[in-house]
Amino acid sequence: MEAQYCGHVLLLPYPAQGHINPLLQFAKRLASKGVKATIATTTYTVKSIHAAAVTVEPISDGFDDGGFTQTQKVDVYLNSFEQNGSRTLSKVIAKYEDSPHPVDCVVYDSFFPWALDVARRHGVRGAAFFTNSATVCAVFAHIHCGALELPVEIEENGAAVVLPGIPPLYGPDIPSFITAPDSYPAYLAMKMRQFSNVGNADWIFANTFQELEPEVVAGVSKVWPAKLIGPMVPSSYLDGRIEGDKGYGASLWKPLGEECLNWLKSRPNQSVVYVSFGSMVSLSTKQMDEMARALIASELNFLWVVRESERSKLPQGFVESARGKGLVVSWCNQLEMLAHPAIGCFVTHCGWNSTLELLSLGVPTVAMPQWSDQFTDAKFIEEIWKVGVRPKLDKYGIVNREELVFCLKEVMEGEMSEEIKRNARKWRELAKGAVSEGGSSDKAINEFVEHLKCSKIGKQLKQIINE
Ligand code: UDP
């Protein structure tokens, strides 16, 4: 018998790990509420996605053999994606037009505002999905509407960014693209384009939750009226309502799960430092060296994710000399690690997904932002949510080994350790509450699903009347 759905949502993520994860998770969440969910992703990433409840459809970014790595030029890649992606996304929508489940809404990564035009050409609704914090979105939204000018000048003795609902942002807290607009012009242009037609979208979704950034959301609601639906973290780590939802279901690299779990099994509770800088950050050789030496000097157990492309920056002989105390792997299932009782601290680059994961799992943190929005996330981790510490940079812009050892000890067993752990537990409960039945994010998702239901009933009635 044909399955019954209350609507069909087609989701389009930017094909990077930190974007596929939250959009795929949203797809699973919608599917658990009776919606047919389809992910449209590049030919190159299709094979990395495995989620039983979600259909996967390939589209083209014009680089079908290697994606972004084939060109390495952001503007070339984005232009090609817009051209080829528009055409192939349109084909996917058309494919379902005469099926029992035509697409009702395209939920597109806010990096792809052109997807709204594609949806409109098919008479389909469109929703922008933002993968950053509300604070970061608010900063860019205010630049877009002219309330903040570029470049944002860093003030010697004052806050450089003062906006409604946002704590004052000082130099080290500000997204790097806007203090140095020439550093990554193509990325900055992409961040700004997110707002180009957002006013025309039927919905705006953001992967954050009401309790996490309440004043921010109120302050920016006029220019960016987003529905907060996060944290988009697999259900088994939060509300447990989606059966078997233990992982995102997408991995662009092969995770060394068993090796990590076997190694963690023999470590005492809360004794291991988990270190990861996500899927994109590339540390300098000097910073890698200081990190390696700090981990050894701390005498703590550690599990360090060093992507294959970064491995040559490790000091010679480090992996061998660390044996017993430390494990270095090229990729892992991060959530499984953060949820493991042996983990006591997370050294992170503060990517937004990693930030939501550490909050959702209540893991004390050492925040080491490297670029883009990570600086703002780090401020919140240390000063607003108080779930970690942020090491100071030395005069060369490096976190040196002494500072790192100090921060690791502080978080694991120092004066602030108990308070940090208490706050981490508090945020974990609030994150759980947001996605549990009746929670703020759950309600926001239900409202969207109700809309889909109503418009489906409306369409069916129209059809009956016409017949
Ligand atoms: N991640 C993972 N295994 C790793 C490192 C990272 O599964 O070894 C996941 C992590 O759980 C997160 C995503 O990759 O969901 C990284 O996203 P984030 O926004 O934190 O950083 P980005 O990679 O976009 O800089």
Descriptive overview:
This protein is of the alpha/beta class and 467 residues long. It folds into two domains: 7-249 and 437-466, Rossmann fold (3-Layer(aba) Sandwich); 257-429, Glycogen Phosphorylase B (Rossmann fold, 3-Layer(aba) Sandwich), CATH 3.40.50. It is built from 17 helices and 13 strands. It has helices spanning 17-32, 43-46, 74-97, 114-121, 134-144, 176-179, 185-193, 214-220, 257-265, 285-298, 318-322, 334-338, 352-361, 374-384, 401-413, 417-435, 440-466, and strands spanning 8-12, 36-42, 54-59, 105-109, 125-130, 203-206, 227-228, 272-276, 301-305, 326-329, 343-348, 365-367, 388-389. Strands 3-2-1-4-5-6-7 form a seven-stranded parallel sheet. A six-stranded parallel sheet has the order 10-9-8-11-12-13, with helices on both faces. Strand 6, helix 8 (214-220) and strand 7 form a beta-alpha-beta unit. Helix 5 (134-144) runs parallel beside helix 8 (214-220), helix 13 (352-361) crosses helix 16 and helix 15 (401-413) crosses helix 16. The protein starts with 7 loop residues before the first strand and ends with a helix. Residues 17-18, 21, 276, 278-281, 305, 331-335, 351-354, 357 line the site of uridine-5'-diphosphate. Uridine-5'-diphosphate binds next to helix 1, helix 12 and helix 13.
